[in-house]
Design goal:
Layout: E1 13-16, H1 22-31, E2 36-39, H2 47-51, E3 55-56, H3 60-64, E4 69-72, H4 77-85, E5 99-102, H5 108-119, E6 124-127, E7 130-131, H6 133-139, E8 142-147, H7 150-161, E9 164-171, H8 175-203, H9 208-215, H10 223-234, H11 243-259, H12 267-282, H13 290-296
Parallel strand pairs: 1-2, 1-4, 2-3, 4-5, 5-6, 8-9
Antiparallel strand pairs: 7-8
C-alpha cells in the first residue's frame, strides 16, 4: 500500500510595524519557517531584515498583494486603519489577504470597526494584543489575548505560536482587546503603586534598595513589577513601554468604562500622573520614569 503524505503550505505573512516589539515578533515568525514580507514607515528599521533574507516591501498596498495573513503592530487604531484602508493601504482589489491579525492595544470598539470594514472584502480579523514586554517578545514567549471566530483561531494559531507561548482565545472579536485593556490598567496601577511605596519608604527612612531586596520575591510583587522595580530604584529606565503608550491605553480603558457606565477608581489620577510625566518631557521614555514625577513633588 502506497502512503501519500501531504505537505500543508504555511501562509505568507506580511508584518507591518517594526518597533520595539515588532522587530523580535517578526523575526520569530521568520525563524518559524513562514515566508515573511515586511513593511515599516521608517525604512531604516528594515535593514536587519534584508540581511536575514526577508522580503522588504515599500508600501502596505504591495504587501497586501503578497500576504495571506497581515500582522499589524503599529501604535493606535488610526494607524491600523491607515495602513489597511488608507491611500496605498494593504486592503484593495488586488489584495491576496485572507486574515488581518492586529496585535497592539486599540480597544474593543476599534477592533470591531476594523473587523466590520474588512468583512466587506470577505477578510477575517483577529484582535490579538500581546503582553510580556521586550524580553518575552525576544524569546517568543509572549502572552496573547485573542478575539476572533474560533475556526479562524484554530486555522491560524500556528502564526501566533511563532510569537507566544501563552495564547488565550477569549471569545468573539473585541474580547482580546477587552482583556488587554484590563491587563494594562493593572500595569498602570502597579507602577503608580510602586512609586507610592518608594515614597513611603523614604518617609520611614527606609533605603529604597533595601525595600526592593526585601519585597522582590514576595507574592504581592508581579513579574512585571520585578522587571521595573530595580529601574525605579536605580533611576535607570531602558525603554520597553513608553509613557505615551500607557496614556493611550489607560485612556482607552477609561473610554470603554464610560461607554458601559462603569466607574473605575483612580483612573483619572493615573492618567494625569502620566500626563505630568509627558509634560516633563518623558513622553517617549519608559513607564518606570513615573518615579521622576513623584520625586519632583
Amino acid at each position: 500500500m502506497i502512503e501519500i503524505h501531504y505537505t500543508i503550505m504555511k501562509p505568507t505573512i506580511g508584518f507591518i510595524g517594526l518597533g520595539i516589539m515588532g522587530v523580535p515578533m517578526a523575526k520569530n515568525i521568520h525563524k518559524a519557517g513562514f515566508r515573511l514580507v515586511v513593511y515599516n514607515r521608517n525604512p531604516a528599521k528594515t535593514e536587519e531584515f534584508k540581511a536575514l533574507g526577508v522580503t522588504v516591501i515599500d508600501s502596505p498596498a504591495k504587501l497586501g498583494e503578497q500576504a495571506e495573513v497581515i500582522v499589524t503592530m503599529v501604535t493606535a487604531a488610526a494607524d491600523v486603519k491607515a495602513v489597511l484602508f488608507g491611500e496605498n493601504g494593504a486592503i484593495h482589489k488586488n489584495s491576496k489577504t485572507k486574515l488581518v491579525i492586529d496585535m497592539e492595544t486599540i480597544g474593543p470598539t476599534a477592533a470591531k470597526e476594523i473587523a466590520a470594514e474588512l468583512e466587506k472584502s470577505e477578510i477575517d480579523f483577529m484582535d490579538a494584543p500581546v503582553t510580556g514586554s521586550l524580553p518575552k517578545a525576544t524569546t517568543g514567549q509572549l502572552t496573547i489575548f485573542v478575539g476572533s471566530k474560533l475556526e479562524v483561531f484554530n486555522k491560524y494559531k500556528e502564526v501566533l505560536e511563532a510569537m507566544g507561548s501563552n495564547i488565550k482565545h477569549i471569545g468573539e472579536i473585541g474580547k482580546g482587546q477587552s482583556v488587554k485593556l484590563i491587563n494594562n490598567y493593572l500595569i498602570t496601577h502597579s507602577f503608580i503603586g510602586l512609586a507610592y511605596c518608594l515614597r513611603l519608604a523614604d518617609a520611614m527612612k527606609l533605603d529604597r534598595k533595601q525595600l526592593q531586596d526585601a519585597i522582590f520575591d514576595a507574592p504581592v510583587v508581579s513579574d512585571f513589577m520585578r522587571l521595573k522595580l530595580p529601574n525605579m530604584v536605580k533611576d535607570e529606565h531602558p525603554l520597553l513601554f513608553s509613557v505615551e503608550n500607557i496614556i493611550k491605553d489607560t485612556e482607552l480603558a477609561k473610554f470603554e468604562a464610560e461607554k458601559e457606565n462603569v466607574e473605575v477608581g483612580n483612573i483619572d489620577e493615573y492618567i494625569n500622573l502620566y500626563k505630568e510625566a509627558k509634560q516633563m518631557g518623558l513622553g517617549n521614555e519608559d513607564v518606570s520614569t513615573i518615579m521622576k514625577v513623584f520625586d519632583k513633588k
